[in-house]
Protein backbone atom coordinates (compact mmCIF):
# COMPACT_ATOMS: atom_id res chain seq x y z
CA UNK A 1 0.00 0.00 0.00
CA UNK A 2 1.16 3.50 -0.64
CA UNK A 3 0.94 5.17 2.72
CA UNK A 4 0.66 8.59 1.31
CA UNK A 5 -0.42 11.08 3.95
CA UNK A 6 2.48 13.33 2.97
CA UNK A 7 1.44 13.21 -0.68
CA UNK A 8 -2.03 14.58 -0.14
CA UNK A 9 -1.70 18.10 -1.49
CA UNK A 10 -4.16 20.00 0.61
CA UNK A 11 -5.12 18.97 4.11
CA UNK A 12 -8.33 20.73 4.83
CA UNK A 13 -9.12 22.57 8.05
CA UNK A 14 -11.01 19.53 9.26
CA UNK A 15 -9.48 17.19 11.74
CA UNK A 16 -10.79 14.04 13.30
CA UNK A 17 -10.80 13.29 17.00
CA UNK A 18 -10.68 9.70 18.21
CA UNK A 19 -11.35 9.45 21.90
CA UNK A 20 -12.55 7.07 24.56
CA UNK A 21 -13.74 9.97 26.72
CA UNK A 22 -17.27 9.88 28.09
CA UNK A 23 -19.73 11.08 25.44
CA UNK A 24 -21.98 12.84 27.92
CA UNK A 25 -19.15 15.17 28.98
CA UNK A 26 -17.96 15.78 25.42
CA UNK A 27 -21.47 16.39 24.11
CA UNK A 28 -21.76 19.37 26.43
CA UNK A 29 -19.36 21.27 24.15
CA UNK A 30 -21.47 22.62 21.34
CA UNK A 31 -18.81 22.45 18.64
CA UNK A 32 -18.43 18.73 19.38
CA UNK A 33 -22.13 18.04 19.88
CA UNK A 34 -22.63 18.86 16.20
CA UNK A 35 -19.55 16.98 14.99
CA UNK A 36 -20.23 13.43 16.18
CA UNK A 37 -19.63 10.64 13.64
CA UNK A 38 -20.38 7.62 15.78
CA UNK A 39 -18.79 5.21 18.24
CA UNK A 40 -16.59 2.38 17.05
CA UNK A 41 -15.75 -0.20 19.65
CA UNK A 42 -14.43 1.76 22.62
CA UNK A 43 -13.67 4.88 20.58
CA UNK A 44 -15.88 7.77 19.55
CA UNK A 45 -15.17 9.87 16.51
CA UNK A 46 -15.78 13.58 15.92
CA UNK A 47 -14.93 15.61 12.83
CA UNK A 48 -14.63 19.30 13.53
CA UNK A 49 -12.51 22.23 12.43
CA UNK A 50 -9.27 22.73 14.25
CA UNK A 51 -10.60 25.83 16.02
CA UNK A 52 -13.04 23.61 17.89
CA UNK A 53 -10.26 21.46 19.32
CA UNK A 54 -8.18 24.50 20.19
CA UNK A 55 -11.13 26.00 22.05
CA UNK A 56 -11.56 22.98 24.30
CA UNK A 57 -8.08 21.63 24.53
CA UNK A 58 -8.20 21.91 28.32
CA UNK A 59 -11.19 19.58 28.39
CA UNK A 60 -9.80 16.91 26.09
CA UNK A 61 -7.93 14.50 28.27
CA UNK A 62 -7.59 11.56 25.93
CA UNK A 63 -7.50 10.90 22.27
CA UNK A 64 -5.78 11.61 18.98
CA UNK A 65 -6.42 14.47 16.60
CA UNK A 66 -5.78 13.53 13.00
CA UNK A 67 -5.88 15.80 9.93
CA UNK A 68 -8.10 14.26 7.26
CA UNK A 69 -8.45 14.81 3.51
CA UNK A 70 -11.44 16.85 2.43
CA UNK A 71 -12.68 14.20 -0.01
CA UNK A 72 -13.09 10.45 0.01
CA UNK A 73 -14.75 8.08 2.42
CA UNK A 74 -13.40 7.41 5.89
CA UNK A 75 -13.54 3.84 7.16
CA UNK A 76 -12.96 2.51 10.66
CA UNK A 77 -11.27 -0.89 10.79
CA UNK A 78 -11.24 -2.87 13.98
CA UNK A 79 -9.92 -6.27 14.92
CA UNK A 80 -12.55 -8.40 16.61
CA UNK A 81 -11.94 -9.63 20.13
CA UNK A 82 -11.04 -13.28 19.52
CA UNK A 83 -9.99 -16.05 21.82
CA UNK A 84 -6.26 -16.79 21.95
CA UNK A 85 -7.01 -20.30 20.73
CA UNK A 86 -7.93 -19.01 17.26
CA UNK A 87 -6.06 -15.72 17.08
CA UNK A 88 -3.81 -15.45 14.03
CA UNK A 89 -0.19 -14.70 14.88
CA UNK A 90 0.48 -11.31 13.33
CA UNK A 91 -2.84 -9.74 12.61
CA UNK A 92 -1.40 -6.30 11.96
CA UNK A 93 0.74 -7.63 9.11
CA UNK A 94 -2.29 -9.44 7.81
CA UNK A 95 -4.13 -6.12 7.60
CA UNK A 96 -1.27 -4.46 5.71
CA UNK A 97 -1.24 -7.21 3.12
CA UNK A 98 -4.95 -7.03 2.56
CA UNK A 99 -5.04 -3.25 2.25
CA UNK A 100 -2.31 -3.46 -0.35
CA UNK A 101 -4.34 -6.02 -2.21
CA UNK A 102 -7.39 -3.81 -1.96
CA UNK A 103 -5.51 -0.79 -3.34
CA UNK A 104 -4.45 -2.93 -6.31
CA UNK A 105 -7.97 -4.16 -6.91
CA UNK A 106 -9.51 -0.72 -6.89
CA UNK A 107 -6.84 0.82 -9.10
CA UNK A 108 -8.08 1.20 -12.71
CA UNK A 109 -6.83 -1.50 -15.06
CA UNK A 110 -3.70 -0.66 -17.03
CA UNK A 111 -4.24 0.48 -20.60
CA UNK A 112 -5.76 3.74 -19.46
CA UNK A 113 -6.66 5.68 -22.55
CA UNK A 114 -6.04 9.25 -21.49
CA UNK A 115 -3.29 11.07 -19.70
CA UNK A 116 -5.83 11.98 -17.00
CA UNK A 117 -6.61 8.36 -16.25
CA UNK A 118 -2.92 7.59 -15.92
CA UNK A 119 -2.65 10.44 -13.46
CA UNK A 120 -5.69 9.23 -11.52
CA UNK A 121 -4.34 5.72 -11.42
CA UNK A 122 -1.32 7.01 -9.57
CA UNK A 123 -3.30 8.59 -6.78
CA UNK A 124 -3.27 6.48 -3.65
CA UNK A 125 -6.55 4.67 -3.35
CA UNK A 126 -6.18 3.60 0.25
CA UNK A 127 -4.86 6.20 2.62
CA UNK A 128 -3.82 5.09 6.08
CA UNK A 129 -4.55 7.89 8.53
CA UNK A 130 -4.10 6.27 11.92
CA UNK A 131 -3.52 2.89 13.43
CA UNK A 132 -3.13 1.10 16.69
CA UNK A 133 -2.61 -2.57 17.46
CA UNK A 134 -6.27 -3.39 16.99
CA UNK A 135 -7.74 -0.62 14.88
CA UNK A 136 -7.06 1.60 11.91
CA UNK A 137 -8.58 4.61 10.23
CA UNK A 138 -8.29 4.77 6.46
CA UNK A 139 -9.70 6.83 3.62
CA UNK A 140 -10.82 5.32 0.33
CA UNK A 141 -12.28 6.82 -2.84
CA UNK A 142 -15.96 6.35 -2.30
CA UNK A 143 -18.67 4.80 -0.19
CA UNK A 144 -18.91 1.90 -2.65
CA UNK A 145 -15.22 1.22 -2.22
CA UNK A 146 -15.73 1.23 1.55
CA UNK A 147 -18.47 -1.38 1.26
CA UNK A 148 -16.41 -3.53 -1.10
CA UNK A 149 -13.59 -3.51 1.45
CA UNK A 150 -15.51 -5.83 3.76
CA UNK A 151 -15.03 -8.70 1.31
CA UNK A 152 -11.27 -8.21 1.14
CA UNK A 153 -10.38 -7.98 4.79
CA UNK A 154 -8.85 -10.76 6.84
CA UNK A 155 -11.69 -12.43 8.63
CA UNK A 156 -11.15 -10.96 12.09
CA UNK A 157 -11.16 -7.38 10.83
CA UNK A 158 -14.44 -5.52 10.60
CA UNK A 159 -14.90 -2.38 8.56
CA UNK A 160 -17.45 0.34 9.21
CA UNK A 161 -17.83 3.34 6.91
CA UNK A 162 -17.87 6.58 8.89
CA UNK A 163 -20.90 8.72 7.96
CA UNK A 164 -19.99 11.65 5.73
CA UNK A 165 -22.09 14.08 7.74
CA UNK A 166 -22.59 14.45 11.49
CA UNK A 167 -24.97 12.09 13.25
CA UNK A 168 -27.05 13.16 16.24
CA UNK A 169 -25.49 12.53 19.58
CA UNK A 170 -28.65 11.00 20.99
CA UNK A 171 -28.09 9.14 24.20
CA UNK A 172 -30.84 6.76 25.29
CA UNK A 173 -33.08 8.99 27.40
CA UNK A 174 -33.52 8.52 31.12
CA UNK A 175 -37.26 8.05 30.54
CA UNK A 176 -36.62 5.22 28.09
CA UNK A 177 -34.13 3.58 30.46
CA UNK A 178 -36.54 3.92 33.38
CA UNK A 179 -39.23 2.19 31.33
CA UNK A 180 -36.95 -0.85 30.93
CA UNK A 181 -36.02 -0.65 34.60
CA UNK A 182 -39.73 -0.78 35.48
CA UNK A 183 -40.22 -3.89 33.35
CA UNK A 184 -37.18 -5.47 35.04
CA UNK A 185 -38.68 -4.68 38.44
CA UNK A 186 -41.93 -6.45 37.55
CA UNK A 187 -40.39 -9.59 36.08
CA UNK A 188 -40.95 -12.83 37.90
CA UNK A 189 -41.31 -16.44 36.84
CA UNK A 190 -44.51 -16.96 34.87
CA UNK A 191 -45.37 -20.63 34.19
CA UNK A 192 -47.30 -19.70 31.04
CA UNK A 193 -44.30 -17.86 29.63
CA UNK A 194 -42.13 -20.85 30.54
CA UNK A 195 -44.40 -23.29 28.69
CA UNK A 196 -44.48 -21.01 25.65
CA UNK A 197 -40.73 -20.43 25.38
CA UNK A 198 -39.97 -24.10 26.01
CA UNK A 199 -42.06 -24.93 22.96
CA UNK A 200 -39.42 -23.56 20.52
CA UNK A 201 -38.65 -26.50 18.27
CA UNK A 202 -35.02 -27.61 17.93
CA UNK A 203 -36.02 -29.69 14.91
CA UNK A 204 -37.10 -26.56 13.09
CA UNK A 205 -33.96 -24.69 14.15
CA UNK A 206 -32.02 -27.48 12.45
CA UNK A 207 -34.13 -27.61 9.29
CA UNK A 208 -34.20 -23.82 8.95
CA UNK A 209 -30.49 -23.28 9.42
CA UNK A 210 -29.69 -26.02 6.91
CA UNK A 211 -31.79 -24.22 4.33
CA UNK A 212 -30.13 -20.87 4.97
CA UNK A 213 -26.60 -22.32 4.99
CA UNK A 214 -27.17 -24.39 1.86
CA UNK A 215 -26.38 -27.61 3.74
CA UNK A 216 -29.87 -28.82 2.78
CA UNK A 217 -29.36 -30.28 -0.71
CA UNK A 218 -32.67 -28.73 -1.83
CA UNK A 219 -31.48 -25.21 -0.94
CA UNK A 220 -30.16 -23.09 -3.83
CA UNK A 221 -28.29 -20.79 -1.42
CA UNK A 222 -24.49 -20.65 -1.77
CA UNK A 223 -23.91 -17.34 -0.01
CA UNK A 224 -26.01 -14.74 1.76
CA UNK A 225 -23.53 -11.94 1.14
CA UNK A 226 -25.78 -8.87 0.73
CA UNK A 227 -24.79 -8.46 -2.94
CA UNK A 228 -25.59 -12.03 -3.99
CA UNK A 229 -28.56 -13.86 -5.45
CA UNK A 230 -28.49 -16.15 -2.39
CA UNK A 231 -29.29 -13.24 -0.08
CA UNK A 232 -32.31 -12.35 -2.21
CA UNK A 233 -33.50 -15.96 -2.09
CA UNK A 234 -33.01 -16.00 1.68
CA UNK A 235 -34.96 -12.76 2.06
CA UNK A 236 -37.92 -14.11 0.08
CA UNK A 237 -37.81 -17.39 1.97
CA UNK A 238 -37.73 -15.65 5.35
CA UNK A 239 -40.66 -13.45 4.34
CA UNK A 240 -42.70 -16.44 3.10
CA UNK A 241 -41.84 -18.59 6.13
CA UNK A 242 -42.69 -15.78 8.54
CA UNK A 243 -45.96 -14.99 6.78
CA UNK A 244 -46.97 -18.65 6.96
CA UNK A 245 -46.85 -18.20 10.73
CA UNK A 246 -49.16 -15.17 10.62
CA UNK A 247 -46.74 -12.20 10.66
CA UNK A 248 -46.98 -9.40 8.10
CA UNK A 249 -43.64 -8.87 6.41
CA UNK A 250 -42.13 -6.30 4.15
CA UNK A 251 -38.94 -6.52 2.09
CA UNK A 252 -37.52 -3.08 2.71
CA UNK A 253 -34.96 -1.95 0.19
CA UNK A 254 -32.49 0.43 1.80
CA UNK A 255 -30.01 0.81 -1.03
CA UNK A 256 -29.94 -0.13 -4.69
CA UNK A 257 -28.12 -3.40 -5.38
CA UNK A 258 -28.29 -4.67 -1.79
CA UNK A 259 -30.54 -7.44 -0.51
CA UNK A 260 -33.34 -5.85 1.55
CA UNK A 261 -34.15 -5.88 5.25
CA UNK A 262 -37.02 -8.22 6.10
CA UNK A 263 -39.29 -6.48 8.60
CA UNK A 264 -42.15 -8.52 10.08
CA UNK A 265 -44.85 -7.16 12.36
CA UNK A 266 -47.53 -8.29 14.78
CA UNK A 267 -50.09 -5.59 15.51
CA UNK A 268 -50.90 -4.69 19.10
CA UNK A 269 -54.27 -5.70 20.53
CA UNK A 270 -54.24 -2.53 22.62
CA UNK A 271 -54.22 1.06 21.39
CA UNK A 272 -50.54 1.87 21.81
CA UNK A 273 -47.50 3.01 19.80
CA UNK A 274 -45.12 1.02 22.01
CA UNK A 275 -43.06 -1.45 20.01
CA UNK A 276 -40.68 -4.27 20.98
CA UNK A 277 -38.09 -5.37 18.39
CA UNK A 278 -36.16 -8.62 18.30
CA UNK A 279 -33.76 -9.11 15.42
CA UNK A 280 -30.85 -10.85 13.72
CA UNK A 281 -28.89 -10.29 10.51
CA UNK A 282 -29.42 -12.80 7.72
CA UNK A 283 -26.55 -11.71 5.48
CA UNK A 284 -23.24 -13.60 5.76
CA UNK A 285 -19.57 -13.33 4.98
CA UNK A 286 -17.27 -16.10 3.76
CA UNK A 287 -13.53 -16.39 3.35
CA UNK A 288 -11.75 -14.08 0.94
CA UNK A 289 -11.66 -15.63 -2.51
CA UNK A 290 -14.43 -18.16 -1.80
CA UNK A 291 -17.94 -17.84 -3.18
CA UNK A 292 -19.34 -19.96 -0.31
CA UNK A 293 -20.63 -18.08 2.72
CA UNK A 294 -22.89 -20.52 4.60
CA UNK A 295 -22.99 -18.45 7.80
CA UNK A 296 -24.71 -21.19 9.81
CA UNK A 297 -23.55 -19.54 13.03
CA UNK A 298 -23.01 -15.95 11.80
CA UNK A 299 -25.84 -15.24 11.68
CA UNK A 300 -27.91 -18.18 10.51
CA UNK A 301 -28.25 -19.10 14.19
CA UNK A 302 -29.79 -15.74 15.17
CA UNK A 303 -32.02 -15.77 12.09
CA UNK A 304 -33.47 -19.21 12.84
CA UNK A 305 -33.93 -18.24 16.49
CA UNK A 306 -36.20 -15.40 15.34
CA UNK A 307 -38.00 -17.67 12.88
CA UNK A 308 -38.33 -20.34 15.60
CA UNK A 309 -39.92 -17.76 17.88
CA UNK A 310 -42.39 -16.85 15.10
CA UNK A 311 -43.28 -20.51 14.58
CA UNK A 312 -44.00 -20.79 18.32
CA UNK A 313 -46.10 -17.60 18.34
CA UNK A 314 -48.28 -19.27 15.69
CA UNK A 315 -48.37 -22.69 17.37
CA UNK A 316 -49.40 -21.20 20.70
CA UNK A 317 -51.82 -18.62 19.27
CA UNK A 318 -50.14 -15.62 20.90
CA UNK A 319 -51.54 -12.11 20.42
CA UNK A 320 -49.33 -9.30 21.75
CA UNK A 321 -50.81 -6.37 23.65
CA UNK A 322 -48.12 -4.01 22.35
CA UNK A 323 -46.60 -3.95 18.88
CA UNK A 324 -43.91 -6.49 18.15
CA UNK A 325 -41.52 -6.57 15.22
CA UNK A 326 -39.25 -9.44 14.21
CA UNK A 327 -36.51 -8.11 11.92
CA UNK A 328 -33.87 -9.72 9.71
CA UNK A 329 -31.25 -7.20 8.65
CA UNK A 330 -29.02 -7.17 5.59
CA UNK A 331 -25.65 -5.46 5.09
CA UNK A 332 -24.49 -6.05 8.67
CA UNK A 333 -21.18 -7.38 7.40
CA UNK A 334 -20.47 -4.15 5.50
CA UNK A 335 -20.89 -2.06 8.68
CA UNK A 336 -24.55 -2.47 9.83
CA UNK A 337 -25.80 -0.74 6.70
CA UNK A 338 -29.33 -2.19 6.65
CA UNK A 339 -30.07 -1.68 10.34
CA UNK A 340 -28.65 1.84 10.28
CA UNK A 341 -31.12 2.78 7.57
CA UNK A 342 -34.00 1.23 9.49
CA UNK A 343 -33.11 2.73 12.88
CA UNK A 344 -32.72 6.15 11.29
CA UNK A 345 -36.13 5.78 9.68
CA UNK A 346 -37.70 4.85 13.04
CA UNK A 347 -36.09 7.83 14.75
CA UNK A 348 -37.30 10.20 12.01
CA UNK A 349 -40.83 8.82 12.51
CA UNK A 350 -40.53 9.35 16.31
CA UNK A 351 -41.16 5.63 16.80
CA UNK A 352 -41.86 4.42 20.31
CA UNK A 353 -39.36 1.56 20.71
CA UNK A 354 -39.36 0.05 24.19
CA UNK A 355 -36.34 -2.13 23.56
CA UNK A 356 -34.37 -3.96 20.88
CA UNK A 357 -32.61 -7.31 21.35
CA UNK A 358 -30.35 -8.41 18.51
CA UNK A 359 -29.27 -12.06 18.23
CA UNK A 360 -25.92 -12.43 16.49
CA UNK A 361 -24.07 -15.78 16.68
CA UNK A 362 -25.88 -18.04 19.15
CA UNK A 363 -24.62 -21.52 18.34
CA UNK A 364 -20.95 -21.98 19.08
CA UNK A 365 -19.06 -22.58 22.27
CA UNK A 366 -15.73 -24.33 22.57
CA UNK A 367 -16.06 -28.09 23.09
CA UNK A 368 -16.22 -28.86 26.80
CA UNK A 369 -17.52 -25.41 27.73
CA UNK A 370 -21.03 -25.07 29.19
CA UNK A 371 -23.77 -23.36 27.14
CA UNK A 372 -23.44 -19.61 27.49
CA UNK A 373 -25.05 -16.24 26.89
CA UNK A 374 -22.82 -13.25 26.26
CA UNK A 375 -23.88 -9.63 26.62
CA UNK A 376 -21.93 -6.74 25.09
CA UNK A 377 -19.49 -5.11 27.52
CA UNK A 378 -19.50 -1.75 25.71
CA UNK A 379 -22.14 -0.87 23.13
CA UNK A 380 -25.70 -1.12 24.44
CA UNK A 381 -28.10 -0.11 27.18
CA UNK A 382 -27.24 -1.62 30.58
CA UNK A 383 -30.90 -1.86 31.66
CA UNK A 384 -31.75 -4.04 28.66
CA UNK A 385 -28.71 -6.25 29.30
CA UNK A 386 -29.78 -6.63 32.94
CA UNK A 387 -33.31 -7.58 31.88
CA UNK A 388 -31.87 -10.25 29.57
CA UNK A 389 -29.57 -11.54 32.32
CA UNK A 390 -32.42 -11.83 34.82
CA UNK A 391 -34.75 -13.51 32.33
CA UNK A 392 -31.99 -15.95 31.47
CA UNK A 393 -31.65 -16.93 35.13
CA UNK A 394 -35.42 -17.50 35.26
CA UNK A 395 -36.14 -19.32 31.98
CA UNK A 396 -32.76 -20.71 30.83
CA UNK A 397 -30.84 -21.45 34.03
CA UNK A 398 -28.64 -23.84 32.04
CA UNK A 399 -26.88 -20.82 30.49
CA UNK A 400 -23.77 -19.29 32.04
CA UNK A 401 -24.28 -15.54 31.58
CA UNK A 402 -21.45 -13.04 31.28
CA UNK A 403 -20.04 -10.21 29.26
CA UNK A 404 -18.36 -10.44 25.87
CA UNK A 405 -15.91 -8.03 24.24
CA UNK A 406 -17.17 -9.24 20.82
CA UNK A 407 -18.59 -6.04 19.59
CA UNK A 408 -21.10 -4.23 17.72
CA UNK A 409 -23.88 -5.94 15.86
CA UNK A 410 -27.10 -4.30 14.59
CA UNK A 411 -28.27 -3.31 18.08
CA UNK A 412 -25.67 -0.54 17.84
CA UNK A 413 -27.69 1.12 15.06
CA UNK A 414 -30.64 1.47 17.44
CA UNK A 415 -28.53 2.48 20.43
CA UNK A 416 -26.96 5.20 18.26
CA UNK A 417 -30.43 6.56 17.52
CA UNK A 418 -31.25 6.64 21.22
CA UNK A 419 -33.34 3.45 21.45
CA UNK A 420 -32.66 1.03 24.36
CA UNK A 421 -30.88 -1.99 22.88
CA UNK A 422 -28.58 -4.91 23.53
CA UNK A 423 -27.24 -8.04 21.86
CA UNK A 424 -27.27 -11.70 22.79
CA UNK A 425 -24.15 -13.67 21.82
CA UNK A 426 -22.94 -17.25 22.13
CA UNK A 427 -20.11 -16.82 24.55
CA UNK A 428 -19.35 -14.99 27.78
CA UNK A 429 -15.97 -14.09 26.33
CA UNK A 430 -14.34 -13.28 22.99
CA UNK A 431 -15.14 -15.02 19.70
CA UNK A 432 -13.92 -18.61 19.77
CA UNK A 433 -15.59 -20.02 16.66
CA UNK A 434 -12.79 -21.32 14.43
CA UNK A 435 -15.14 -21.04 11.43
CA UNK A 436 -15.95 -17.36 12.00
CA UNK A 437 -16.24 -15.57 8.63
CA UNK A 438 -15.15 -18.75 6.94
CA UNK A 439 -16.71 -20.96 4.29
CA UNK A 440 -16.68 -23.76 6.86
CA UNK A 441 -19.34 -22.04 9.02
CA UNK A 442 -21.73 -25.01 8.80
CA UNK A 443 -24.18 -26.35 11.38
CA UNK A 444 -22.92 -29.92 11.30
CA UNK A 445 -19.68 -29.57 13.20
CA UNK A 446 -18.18 -29.87 16.66
CA UNK A 447 -19.14 -27.06 18.99
CA UNK A 448 -22.26 -26.01 17.06
CA UNK A 449 -24.93 -26.43 19.73
CA UNK A 450 -28.62 -26.27 18.77
CA UNK A 451 -29.67 -26.54 22.40
CA UNK A 452 -27.72 -23.35 23.12
CA UNK A 453 -29.53 -21.58 20.25
CA UNK A 454 -32.81 -22.66 21.80
CA UNK A 455 -31.80 -21.58 25.31
CA UNK A 456 -30.83 -18.10 24.12
CA UNK A 457 -33.90 -17.81 21.88
CA UNK A 458 -36.04 -18.62 24.96
CA UNK A 459 -34.57 -15.59 26.71
CA UNK A 460 -35.16 -13.31 23.72
CA UNK A 461 -38.72 -14.62 23.46
CA UNK A 462 -39.37 -14.27 27.21
CA UNK A 463 -38.20 -10.65 27.04
CA UNK A 464 -40.69 -10.06 24.23
CA UNK A 465 -43.58 -11.70 26.11
CA UNK A 466 -42.85 -9.88 29.37
CA UNK A 467 -42.33 -6.51 27.67
CA UNK A 468 -45.13 -6.57 25.10
CA UNK A 469 -47.69 -8.46 27.20
CA UNK A 470 -49.77 -11.14 25.51
CA UNK A 471 -52.95 -13.21 25.41
CA UNK A 472 -53.37 -16.76 24.21
CA UNK A 473 -56.11 -16.71 21.62
CA UNK A 474 -56.78 -20.34 20.90
C1 LIG B 1 -31.78 -9.30 38.69
O1 LIG B 1 -30.92 -10.34 39.08
C2 LIG B 1 -29.99 -9.96 40.07
C3 LIG B 1 -29.02 -11.10 40.23
O2 LIG B 1 -29.71 -12.30 40.48
C4 LIG B 1 -30.72 -9.61 41.34
O3 LIG B 1 -29.81 -9.20 42.34
C5 LIG B 1 -31.68 -8.50 41.06
O4 LIG B 1 -32.45 -8.24 42.20
C6 LIG B 1 -32.57 -8.83 39.89
N1 LIG B 1 -33.31 -7.64 39.57
C7 LIG B 1 -34.63 -7.61 39.63
C8 LIG B 1 -35.23 -6.29 39.39
O5 LIG B 1 -35.29 -8.59 39.84
C1 LIG C 1 -45.23 -27.52 21.31
O1 LIG C 1 -46.58 -27.55 21.65
C2 LIG C 1 -47.37 -28.39 20.81
C3 LIG C 1 -48.81 -28.26 21.27
O2 LIG C 1 -49.20 -26.94 21.39
C4 LIG C 1 -46.90 -29.81 20.91
O3 LIG C 1 -47.63 -30.62 20.00
C5 LIG C 1 -45.43 -29.87 20.56
O4 LIG C 1 -44.94 -31.18 20.77
C6 LIG C 1 -44.64 -28.91 21.41
N1 LIG C 1 -43.26 -28.91 20.96
C7 LIG C 1 -42.25 -28.75 21.79
C8 LIG C 1 -40.87 -28.77 21.17
O5 LIG C 1 -42.39 -28.60 22.98
C1 LIG D 1 -55.81 5.58 20.46
O1 LIG D 1 -55.13 6.48 21.31
C2 LIG D 1 -54.98 7.75 20.74
C3 LIG D 1 -54.04 8.57 21.65
O2 LIG D 1 -54.22 8.22 22.99
C4 LIG D 1 -56.35 8.39 20.56
O3 LIG D 1 -56.22 9.66 19.99
C5 LIG D 1 -57.17 7.49 19.63
O4 LIG D 1 -58.48 7.99 19.52
C6 LIG D 1 -57.21 6.08 20.16
N1 LIG D 1 -57.83 5.21 19.16
C7 LIG D 1 -58.76 4.33 19.48
C8 LIG D 1 -59.28 3.49 18.36
O5 LIG D 1 -59.19 4.21 20.62
C1 LIG E 1 -44.59 5.68 24.13
O1 LIG E 1 -45.58 4.96 24.81
C2 LIG E 1 -45.69 5.29 26.18
C3 LIG E 1 -46.68 4.35 26.82
O2 LIG E 1 -47.87 4.32 26.10
C4 LIG E 1 -46.12 6.74 26.29
O3 LIG E 1 -46.19 7.08 27.65
C5 LIG E 1 -45.10 7.61 25.58
O4 LIG E 1 -45.53 8.93 25.58
C6 LIG E 1 -44.91 7.15 24.16
N1 LIG E 1 -43.78 7.87 23.58
C7 LIG E 1 -43.77 8.28 22.31
C8 LIG E 1 -42.51 8.93 21.83
O5 LIG E 1 -44.71 8.13 21.55
ZN1 LIG F 1 -22.79 -11.40 12.68
UniProtKB/TrEMBL annotation:
Record-listed E.C. numbers: 3.4.-.-
Location of the Peptidase M28 domain: 261-445
Domain of life: Eukaryota
Keywords per UniProt: Hydrolase, Metal-binding, Protease, Zinc
Single GO molecular function: metal ion binding
Record InterPro entries: M28_fam, Peptidase_M28
Family: Belongs to the peptidase M28 family. M28B subfamily.
GO biological process: proteolysis
Tagged with keyword rRNA-binding: no
Cofactors required: Zn(2+)
Identification of the protein by name: Peptide hydrolase
Amino acid sequence: MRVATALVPAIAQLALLITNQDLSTLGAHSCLAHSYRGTYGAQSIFVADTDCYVSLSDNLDAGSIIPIPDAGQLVWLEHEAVDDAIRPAAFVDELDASLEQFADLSRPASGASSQQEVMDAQEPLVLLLHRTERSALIAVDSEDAAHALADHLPRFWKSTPIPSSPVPLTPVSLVARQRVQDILGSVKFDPIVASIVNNISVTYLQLDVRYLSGEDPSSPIISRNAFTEGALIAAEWLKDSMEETGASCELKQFREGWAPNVICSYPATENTTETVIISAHYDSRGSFGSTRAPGADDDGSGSVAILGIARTIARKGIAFRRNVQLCFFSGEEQGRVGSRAYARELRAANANITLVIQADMLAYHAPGEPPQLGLPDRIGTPEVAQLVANLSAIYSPELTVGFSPACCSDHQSFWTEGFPATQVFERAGPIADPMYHNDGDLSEREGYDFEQIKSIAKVQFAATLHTAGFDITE
